[in-house]
Amino acid sequence: MRILVNPDQLRQVAQQLHRTNSDLRGASSNIGRIVGGMSLEIRARTNVDERAVAARRQAEALAEQAESLARYLEERAEAFQRADGQDLGIRAFGGGLVGLFGRTGAVFGGALGTLFSTVLSGLGGLLTLTPVNGMTQLLARTSDGSVLGVSTEAKDYASMPWREKLDELERLEQEIEALKKHLPLRVMLAEDVRTRIVDLDKQIADLEAKQEESEKRAGQWWNKMLPTWPLRRDGDGAPWRVQSDNYEDEVANYQDDLKQLIQEREEVVLIYNDWESLERLQQNYDALNAHCVQELGNAVNASIARYKYADPAITGDSKIIQEFMDVGRDHNIDPMFLVAIAASETHFGANPHPQNNPFGLGPRNTYDTLAEAIDHASRSIDRYGVSSIAEIGAKWAPVGASNDPTGLNNNWVKNVTWWYGQLGGIDPTHVAQL
C-alpha cells in the first residue's frame, strides 16, 4: 500500500521528538537532584537509589532513540521536498517509515510507560513528566500511520477486477472511519482549523519580533550598566538588577509563550492534514462507488436489451443498483451475485411475480419496496454462513424441496452461476462471507 506523506508533518513529528529528547534528559537530571536531596536514611530504607539509577538509564536511552528518530525524519522530509521540488503538498511514500513507527512507536511508548511507572513508584510521585506523556500519545497515534498520512491515492478503478473494487471500497471505508475517530468533529471544522493556523502564525510572528527586539535591548551596553529602580539584588548574585535583566526576563516569557503557540500550531496542523486526508479518501470512495454502480448498471441494461425482457423491476438505474450495493455490502455479499439471483429467478423481475419480489422468495412473498426484498434475500444468505454459489444454492434452492414440484431447483446453481458470469463476476466460489 502507498502512503501519502506531507513533509511538514515529518518535520513536526521530528520537532516533538527533539523536545522529547530534551524532556527526557531533563527528567534524568531531576531524578538525580530529587534523590540527592533525600537523607541517606530515607534513601537506604526505600532502596530508591537503585530504582533511580535504572530510571535515569531508561530516560537516557529513550532520549537517544527520540533524537535518532528526529534526525531520520528530518532527512526523509528533505529528501521528499527535493524530489518534488515543492515547499508544500502531499508526497507518495512507501511503507518503510510507517513500518518503522509501527515497531518503534509501540516499543517507545511502552518503554516510556515503564519509565513513568518506575520513576513514580520509586520516588513516590515526586516527578511528573507531562510533556513526555504527550509524546507517548503522539507515538501511539503515529504507529497506525495516521499522523504521517493515509493511503489516499486514487487508483485506476477501470482496470480493477470486480472483487478488488469491493475490497477497495471496504478499505476506503475503514480508513475514513479511522480518521474520523482522530478528528474532533464537534470542536473544530476544517475551515475553523485553517483560520486558526493563520491566526497562530500571526501570533507567532508577532512574538518572535518582540523577542528579537528584547534580545537586542538586553545586549546593549548601557542597559547592562543602568540599574533598575528601586534598587534590589539580582537572583544571580549581582549587587543589583540592571535594565538588561528586565529584557532577559521578557525574552524568557516570550520563549515560553512561543513554545505554547508552536505546540498548539503543530497540533492544529495535524488536525488540518487529517481533514485533507479525509476529504481525499471520501472523494476516492465516492468515485469508486459511482464507478461500481455504473459498471453493474450497464451490465444489467445490456442483459435486458439482449434478451428483450419486458418491463423488468430491476434496471440499471443508479438508485436501484445502489440499493444492491449498499445492502449487499452491509451483509458481506457480492452485490453482483444478488443481481444474478434476480436475473435467474425472474429475469430481473420481468416474469409475472409477486409485488417487489424479483428473487422468488417464499416463493410468493410480497414486499412494500424492492429494498425490503433485497434486505430479506441478503439476510437469508448471510445466515447460511457459506460463501460459494453451490453452497448457497443447496440452502436457497435445495434439490427435491417440497415447494419445487417441477424440479426447477436442479438448475439453480448452474443458472445463477451463468448469470453471475454474464454480469461480470469471476469467482463463483466466493460470493458471500466476504
Query: What would the average pLDDT be, to the nearest integer?
Result: 78
Structural class: mainly alpha
Q: What is the topology, as strand order, of the major beta sheet?
A: 1-2
Stretches with pLDDT under 50, minimum 5 residues = 86-150
Largest sheet: 2 strands, antiparallel
Radius of gyration: 33 Å
* Alpha plus pi helix count: 14
**What is the helix fraction of residues, given as a range?**
55-70%
What overall geometry do the principal axes of the alpha carbons give?
Answer: elongated
How many strand units?
Answer: 2
String of helices and strands? EHHHEHHHHHHHHHHH
Which characteristics define this entry?
434 residues, 1% strand, mainly alpha, two-stranded antiparallel ribbon, Lysozyme
List strands and helices in order, with pairings.
Blueprint: E1 3-5, H1 7-36, H2 40-46, H3 48-84, E2 91-93, H4 96-122, H5 130-142, H6 162-182, H7 190-218, H8 221-225, H9 243-307, H10 318-330, H11 335-346, H12 370-384, H13 389-396, H14 412-423
Antiparallel strand pairs: 1-2
Helix pairs in contact: 1-3, 1-5, 3-4, 4-5, 6-9, 7-9, 9-10, 10-11, 10-12, 11-14, 13-14
